[in-house]
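From: lab user (bench 3)
To: helpdesk
Subject: output format question, protein + pyridoxal-5'-phosphate

Hello, I'm new to running complex predictions and I'm not sure whether the block I got back is the full result or only part of it. Here's what I submitted:
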Amino acid sequence: MSYNEEMYALGAKRSVIREIFEYSKKRAAEIGAQNVFDFSLGNPSVEPPAAISDTVMALVQKEGIHGYTSAQGDPTVRARIADHIRARHGVPITPDLIYMTCGAAASLAITLRALLHKGEECVVFAPFFTEYRVFVENAGGTLTVCAPLEKTFQVDVADLAKKLTPNTKAVILNSPNNPSGVVYSTDTVRGICDVLRQKSAEFGHPIYLIADEPYRELVYGEVEVPYLMKEYAHTVVCYSYSKSLSLPGERIGYIAVCPDMPDANDLYLAICGAGRSLGYVCAPALFQHLIAAHVDTTVDISHYRENRDLLLQALTSYGYECVRPDGAFYLFVKALESDANAFCERARAHELLLVPCDDFGVTGYVRIAYCVDRSRIERALPAFRALADEYRR
Ligand code: PLP
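Helpdesk reply: Thanks, we reran it on our side. This is the complete output you should expect:
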């Protein structure tokens, strides 16, 4: 092969979710979209707040708005984000530790490229976002997976302590979690940070904590999402507005380096270098300026909360075992047989399109993305019930 085999393999192999998405379109053409119950994609179903569209309309009229910004992002935009983090979380961050990106995916790819040397390990917690493997391996690292606690799907801190080695460089924590919807508790987070501090001291070098936070604003009820910079100095936050403002296609987010980190400025320069090496010239200018005007805005999450309540209540009453999601817009459900792929095939016969979670590092579970119209859930409920009845028979 005259080109890179690993890249070819990545491009040639469709993700499970993409494969389901293609099937969904084909099936909708055959039987009508209203008869296909597609719960595969995490594409927000709530429109961005009206103020966002108004600002976009106003910004496009401004002269010079489409020009390049500084590679790390427009300084006024970074200043607004730093102000926001200071006011909301009480962390004294400055704009020179904020780097604007094309969403959380770019934030992660850049951060991992900045941190990892060839062969170093990055620890993730199952269930985990499947693209972590791609980003870690592309940065030259290897992925180590920690098992979750049974039932609650919180992090098993004891397992983490066993998995850390002198070769571990970073740990990625994603809360609220895709695909489980679980928010890691303050106790869990403190337990993780204690182990990281202990092992960093033992190994004589810091283990970095990467907080992957596209779902930070999507939390239901009184649950707290601890801000990791306040818990652990060697934290890098990978933030995105894809879900908080329903702008996933516009590609906008940032990386924030914790100011308490002794080598914060050097790591920031490595992040600038990694962004440069990966060809990220600058994040989309129009959307950087949009964010500057809306650092405190979020979508109305009541639609997702109501969807969650409806699905959780109905599926539990049909006999499904669900993990209670306190955040994000995913329901993690135990398959009614041990093989989640086989279960999804049987669900498909009822036109239910669910995602088997083997690639997320947990077998026997499926993900239901409930960021969909309410009517899709209502129409799908009889199919969920029929599927459960079929297994009971
Ligand atoms: N991390 C997690 C856990 C996600 O679920 C996603 C997207 O769904 C991303 C990162 C990537 O987000 P973005 O669209 O901002 O690149």
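A quick orientation on your result: The chain is about 40% helix and 15% strand. Let us know if anything else is unclear.
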